[in-house]
TrEMBL record, chains A, B, C, D, E, F:
Pathway: Lipid metabolism; fatty acid beta-oxidation. One of its GO terms (biological process) is fatty acid beta-oxidation. It comes from the Eukaryota. Keywords: Acetylation, Fatty acid metabolism, Isomerase, Lipid metabolism, Peroxisome. One of its GO terms (cellular component) is mitochondrion. Belongs to the enoyl-CoA hydratase/isomerase family. One of its GO terms (molecular function) is delta(3,5)-delta(2,4)-dienoyl-CoA isomerase activity. This is Enoyl-CoA hydratase/isomerase. Gene3D superfamilies: 2-enoyl-CoA Hydratase, Chain A, domain 1, Lyase 2-enoyl-coa Hydratase, Chain A, domain 2. The keyword Signal does not apply. PROSITE patterns: ENOYL_COA_HYDRATASE.
Length: 280, 280, 280, 280, 280, 280
């Protein structure tokens, strides 16, 4: 757990043996994203990808609210703004902006690429970068007090670190998706559930966390080879044709079916007992 | 507004300073699509793409109903039919049919490619080409009296100007999509909303228009650089993998973040006032 | 019908003139998939693809339940397991596993590629391979007693014959999709309908079959050129960008609009009578 | 021929019955591209696409040289530069630059999309936009005095109207492609032939034209359905996988094989006579 | 070898222990393709795909010439023609033509998909379907007397079973590719080599076969896991971006590097001896 | 230059003001790839991507030869082998092998993604990983004594860090590509040039370096915005359709044409002087 310990605005703690609880931890600023939080987010999930103890992640936030989004007063944004204003050549400015945008995109994508199911447990405000972040998770649960806002158009920009790419692929009513992206309005929890942005809504923050952790524990009891493959193949298939998805799955499972987990799973099933799977 | 003035079966009028109200205007034939209407549709939205005053479009229809679809008695269809029957060589017929289909597809796609959010406000019947048209819009609102029909199989053909391509990408229940495409049955407003074809249903035609215009005005108050980018990137991302969508967004925003709107948006937020954005 | 007659675990019978009723027919083993059933499934739908009498297929199951999924005690699985355990070289094992996985994928994909609408009528348990199979159908109806389970993680593997590829493309709530894939839990009929996995739920198995057959008959009365094209183009468009889908549709319809069905469809419409279409 | 007659900087004349000779016709400025020439190029090939008399096009240039590329002193460039310098907002400048670049790209792509084989006959200098243009042609012949230069880096920009997209796909030595794109150096005819940029080199301008026209006439004697399809499918296949290319070809030829040309071609072959094909 | 024995127009014989010599064997008709030969071609290479003895294939032809292409007088073509002329509905004709074209494409693609390197040894005429066939092989050698002709435009059609898809991807001068596809002219061996259609030219048919077999034997001495993977990944990478190719290679080699061949290969290298690899 | 200084097996030194000379620096082991060299390669080019001084890179090697490829005796390979042999579960082994392969791929791809033209200057042996590396460079020059070998099949594996993906896209004779991949034979410099693997061959190692550096200096004098864009767009276009490449170029150049370099380039051209461009 040592590399998690060095994170400043993210708190990562083990729940039981195989679930990692990752919490946004900058509550005094409503978990707004500054340079440090972007960096921590990336580093945390890059570490998860190599952490063979961890089979499932629960992502929540400390304090009053999930996240207020980008911290417009923080150094990171000042830096981005200064990149724009200090340079006289728009082409060179573009060159330097590219790196900044790509870095932030990579922090969000680290959640998707970490190869462990990530369950977001969202309470209070989930604004701007918070929507980018939550759509990169596998499962989205929230409490009744949660609300969502694709805030970017309000500050004169198109969302650029994942929302416009992932939101329409996790939600089944495109008219609604575009409406909330064009208006930046606050979407309450129940509406978010009705249109498919979240999978379940719970009455209180406690119930939310309890259920997210219960789900995580349930998944952690499954074969890590199986849940890893399921996430990996779902992501792959989202981005490819059915036939390409099938062909890639053949290549993947040619190795992954040669698992001792398959034998253990089948045996446990026949013996009506809970299977026990080794770490990755 | 001069180029809008030359349209015959489409009426385009300004609402407030930045919203264009586009109305199908062939009510005596239930706004059925003839050659002129296809041409007008294309020309209208090609003009929108260069009209820097217009930031949002509301698309509705004059008369009893949104549209009865293709006008089977009109010259356009006669021409298409005559293409088939006059020529003896099926290959040459195919060559000429190609151009006709492509022209009609381009008219519908002009709505998608005009780079301004388009809000469809649908009342009464929305049949055949009307479904093609509405799925090319960004947001779909309708009144309680509206109904939808993917009519094509009833006249012995597969829908070919956009419905089969876009409908499954705006709706989240594929079993239902296929059922209505295979049966051509009338889908009432509430069912259309339940399955995600429309974003909202209103009691009367008046409420429908009122709300569509209110939404348009709200969006028109946002940065035009931001709403343009949001539409452009949502369309791009629909058709690409998440990673391709992110990479393209980097290229796009490397220019578009260098906007004066970003400064205005941030300042207005800090000063708790409504931002004021220049035209494109 | 001779080639259908040679199937052992599938029963195929004609309903009326143009509907084929395909039934999983291994009720004594809860229609679990063994080698023979995989082969029969492939052969049945490969035959459908050349059967110009058949315009629509209803797929249901005989006995207590739709299917219990893969038959873990059958020879097919023994064979797969033995491929793994008999060979000492994991690379050569992978080479032989590839063929087995691909064969099973092809059996499921034969449903999708048969070019006739397939309506699944599901009762009782629909587990594992049953979900793969049903998501490859065009329309999914079920009875109230039905439940669904993406069972694979329970036996230590990622689903590999279609569920992970097709399920997210037929359902509009991705958070829910991932939850049920990671947990393998039983999903009741109403939940399956709410999230879009099935199009309709019926009270009893009788009503289910009645309605599935009624839908099939309705579609069978449409032009076979039109329904064939609609399925083909919906499948194509799911896997391509909107622009690619449109371009392919031009090529397809350049031939298919030269159909005598188009004339018959238009004439019947004008004469307010039911059209009569020839076989393919 | 009337629509060709209205072109100002392009001369289009019929050679024999089915070959159109298109000549860049601004020799006093070395056929440098100004606004008019861009527009004429687009209009000329858009007309070819509907001109059923024309089966093959020869593209050459009047005067001393093929083309000096973009006319940096002309209004078109002044306009582009003024777009940049007049506007203070780099984002809005980007928005307007987009349209200009896209227009020029479309002019070049019209050559590719016109569905008739285009044979470029190049003499003297072929610089900048001339390389974009020639790589959009099907066959490239040149005379010994020709030389080529991908000039753009010399004026501080990356080539953006087709060279970077098409050149690597027409030439088989990528190291060489990149070298000439990075250095902008003049490539003599023989080197261009050695590395695959041109198909043949002729001693004099007269031989060049003679051979280009002879090739055009030979192709014009083939079935127009066949040559149209060959160009269309080669372009399609360049941009798709082999399997996608094959699938599209099935759709295309399902119509195009029903041609009277097929019968005429086979009969002529058996009768050892030259076939005679109707226009499109 | 039993399944090879049932082939009528193809002769398949073992050379040494791991090379299969496949010969077109209808010399009395210049190996022209009739229904039987199409079927045999498909069946032969489908068998190769499961034949773990065979590691490499040499494909040549008996008699005076490689192949005269499609046999216009044979039943297959008569059948195709009769499909067109017997049916009155161009749409239904298209439906049936689709199956015929797809069948022929699949016969050619079986060569590509058989997962063993295939070396074509071509002498005499290689016309029409012969070019489709040879471009689906991995390596193309020919004798000095060989010539090639993309014959299809001469009979009024675009090549539709592989040439237009594969030829531009095996040859590095696109101007030349298009010229020979548009003209159907005979291309002599040396020209074919110069432009990259063949890898080597030999003086006589004997030298040709000798060298093709020597190459086959050399490859047959390599690890079959390695050569299988090399062919599979080259085909995959041709059809994907570099990044997609790399990602698929990771999945593939995660299994295939766990080979006993890797140890044997490394050991043999260190011990300066020839490695000895087991069959697949 | 500090981060370059920490590299152990790579030497990076500035030539003139804008060219970086990167040399493989493990001559005592013939520059064979061990863990350190893989890491250094990645780190070196990751640094180049942020080094605004550097406009062009020359990549060569110290000692007798370019590189002997993978160091089979080194820790990196031992580690890879031990991953395989230490673990009993082939699925978990696959999971760990994936990371290793991906790391090595990323080291090679860093060359491609560094956004500066890279000129490989190859002498002596260029084996295995050396071919992967050189095909990721933009321009390949070599001396007469150079030879190339796609060595992987000799040790029982398919090349997996770039050769199979990139080689066929830089070379225009696919028959030859496959022959050298299947046989692992040594390809002399002249043959490599003939088939397009290298752009030029020089008599001696001195001439080679002299010419590579001269080319680098020539490119370094161009606008860095232009050469960066040219490399970026060539890579993008290689992996996309022509139309996608054009669309991306519009987005890219909407920012990058707003460069002060454009003005400087045009002015210098008119004033017949050498332009002077600022760093990125």
């Amino acid at each position: 757990m040592s590399s998690y310990a060095s994170l400043k605005h993210i708190k990562a703690s083990r729940i039981g043996s195989h679930v990692l609880h990752v919490q946004l931890n900058r509550p005094e600023r409503l978990n707004a994203f500054n340079s440090q939080l972007w960096q921590d987010l990336h580093d945390c999930f890059a570490t998860v990808a190599h952490d063979t103890e961890t089979r499932v992640v629960v992502l929540s936030a400390l304090g009053k609210t999930f996240t207020a989004g980008l911290d417009c007063e923080c150094a990171a944004v000042q830096e981005a703004v200064s990149v724009v204003s200090e340079r006289e050549d728009p082409a060179r400015t573009a060159y330097h902006l590219r790196k900044k945008i790509a870095d932030w995109q990579n922090a969000i994508s680290a959640v998707e690429k970490c190869d462990r199911p990530v369950i977001a447990a969202i309470h209070g405000a989930c604004i701007g970068a918070g929507v980018d972040l939550s759509t990169a998770c596998d499962v989205r649960y929230c409490s009744k007090d949660a609300f969502f806002s694709v805030k970017e158009v309000d500050i004169g920009m198109a969302a650029d670190v994942g929302t416009l790419q992932r939101l329409p692929k996790v939600v089944g009513n495109n008219s609604w998706v575009r409406e909330i992206c064009f208006t930046a309005r606050n979407v309450p929890a129940e509406e978010a559930h009705h249109y498919g942005l979240v999978g379940r809504v719970f009455g209180t923050r406690e119930e939310l966390l309890e259920n997210a952790i219960a789900l995580a524990n349930e998944i952690a009891g499954k074969s890590p080879i199986a849940t890893l493959g399921t996430k990996h193949l779902l992501n792959y298939s989202r981005d490819h044709t059915v036939d390409e998805g099938l062909a890639y799955t053949v290549a993947w499972n040619a190795a992954m079916l040669q698992s001792t987990d398959l034998k253990e799973g089948v045996m446990a099933g026949l013996q009506k007992r809970k299977p026990l799977f080794a770490n990755l």
